[in-house]
Each structure stands twice: as C-alpha cells, then as structure tokens.
Amino acid sequence: MKYIDPHIHMISRTTDDYQRMAYAQCAAISEPAFWAGFDRGSAAGFHDYFRHLTEFEPRRAAQFGIKHYSWLCINAKEAENVSLSREVISMIPEFLSRPGVLGIGEIGLNKNTANEATIFQEHLDLAAKTDELILIHTPHLEDKYKGTRMIVDMLKGDSRIKPHRVCIDHVEEHTVKLALDNGFWCGMTLYPVTKCTPARACDIIELVGTDRIMANSAGDWGKSDPLAVPELIQEMKRRGHKEADIKKVVYDNPLSFWRQANNWKE
Ligand SMILES: [Zn+2]
C-alpha cells in the first residue's frame, strides 16, 4: 500500500534507507527541522541546515521517486538558548516560500522550561503573521502530559491560531484526546520498542477513530525504524481493519493536512 511518512529526519538516515522506503511504497515524506545530532554554535549553522532540508534532501529523495517536504524552526532542545533562537527565527521568513516548505515546525517543548515556552510562543507569532501551518513536538515520557497541556493552553491562548492548521505530534493514549477534542490534527510517532509501538498506535486508532490522525516513524538519531509506518499497515491489516481506513491514516490524512499549506504543490 502506498503511504506517506509525515515526520522523518532523513538527515540522520542513509541513502539505503530511501531505497528501502521506496520498495515499501513510500510516496512522500516531510522532514521537520530538529536537532541535528549536536547543538549548533551559531545561526549560520541553522542557515546551512535549512539549505540541507530545502535543497539537498528533496534531490536525494527524488532519486527514489519519493517527494520530500520540510518544516522550519529552531527545535525545543536548542531553544533553551533564547538569543540564538531569536536569530534563527528572524532567518526563517526568507526560506518560507521555497518549494516544498510546508510551515513552521517541529516547535514545542522538550523539558517544559520557561525559555522553551517563550520561544514556542515567538514561533506561534511568526506562524500567525505569515499564516503558516504548524507542526508540534510534544515532550517524551514523564514530561509528555504536562508539556502537551502547556502547549494546548498556549495555542488556545493565541486567538489567531486556527486548530485545523496545527498538527500535534508524538501523541499517546493519555494525550491524543487533548489534541483531537480541541480541533487539532495529531500524529503518532512509532518506535520499535519504547514509547508508542505500532501495536499501541493501532489500539489508539481503535479508541479514537481515523479522523485527523496520522502516523510517522521519526527516523531520528535514536533507535528508530524508517519502515515503521509499513509496520503499522501490517498491524492494522492483521487486526482486520478495512483497506480504506488504513489508507486514510497512512496516506489521505497527511495529504489533507499538507494541502492547506500556502506553498502547496502536488
Ligand atoms: Zn522529530
């Protein structure tokens, strides 16, 4: 089945991974700006990173017939440095009209600190002024519920933010309804063993249904599987879910969300 991986960090993956994803019928991916394996020392490092996301990766993906889209921001981990963050945010507008850029992301919280919250809100301000889509990283493990709650409160506190133009990522059983009940889209990030596995993601779909929900692999610097979305397809098939429902989660939903992007081209 053709699928989309709407959140995968290809900067940390090899070209062989692109090949395996193509064999598994990956049609398109989006790569949010995140931590790139080390803390960058200057805004110039982010400038190069944004060029990597918008120039190099789309070309590498195209060799395998995979469409590559991207999101731009300074991630929550490096947002602890407020002055660096402000320099990076001021540089984002020059990249927003580049082909394949879907919006601002993945912004969010990591350790739920005051600095992270300040920079999250400054990204929201930029997204509101430029009417960009927003992709949100929620913290992992014990910080997740509190962080997701803080994020939803900040989103609802800014009346310019339209929930249908926001996707809250890395949801789990205890946070999925915070996203959906407030009108946002949500993403489940599938990890091989820890956090949300393909089986848990399938349980979540059985709890909340298939509207405004998608699944991704993260494919980041930690242990992760770039073929996690096909794993979810297998799990849903095994449990007898209808083909149309599976396709909605792994293909139609991410596409419907992306199609709202200012810059959208099929
Ligand atoms: Zn990520």
What would you note in describing this structure?
This protein is of the alpha/beta class and 266 residues long. The protein has one domain (3-258): Alpha-Beta Barrel (TIM Barrel), CATH 3.20.20. The protein is 42% helix and 15% strand. It has helices at 15-23, 43-62, 82-91, 114-130, 144-157, 176-180, 198-208, 228-238, 243-258; strands at residues 3-5, 26-32, 67-72, 101-108, 133-137, 166-168, 185-189, 213-216. The longest helix is centred in the first third of the chain and has 20 residues, at 43-62. The radius of gyration is 17 Å and the shape is globular. The model has no long low-confidence stretch (mean pLDDT 96). It binds zinc ion (ZN). Residues 7, 9, 32, 34, 106, 137, 218, 220 line the site of zinc ion.
